[in-house]
Amino acid sequence: MNLDNRTRLAIANEVKDFIIERTQDKHLDKNNQPFKPASGYSKSYKNSLDFRLGGKTNAIDLTLSGDMLAAMEVLENKKGKITIGYKKGTENDKAEGNIIGSYGKPSGNPKKARDFLGITDKDFKNIVDKYKNESTVEQSEFNRDLVDFIFGGL
What we know:
Layout: H1 5-26, H2 43-46, H3 49-53, H4 67-70, E1 73-78, E2 81-85, H5 90-100, H6 121-129, E3 147-149
Parallel strand pairs: 2-3
Antiparallel strand pairs: 1-2
């Protein structure tokens, strides 16, 4: 793929912003589905001071402090590949816990997972379509493989 650096970065940032907005405002996962009721907040969390101070409701939006979603960034931007995710650290650990449903445990539980890090082909195409005229790349060169989503850092 022959995207210039500016176009790749603009697409990456728009994808990142789309994921954050979809998660916070619409409470949807990477497939545009509502977070599973089975993955609702624990009773102890609902009774916590953090929950009350954060003005939380039963709608899962992954934003008690907003730090986890705000820490998402473009980790790699090179010809043919853009990687969006997290650097190693606390927010990466929170993201991993949500994505695989581990929440500090050694293994994940798919029933508790809230996999927000990703985008559907349709949503990705809608974003990329905005940039087709700004680039010298032919339409056939735009494809879904451009963006990878990772957690765990590089």
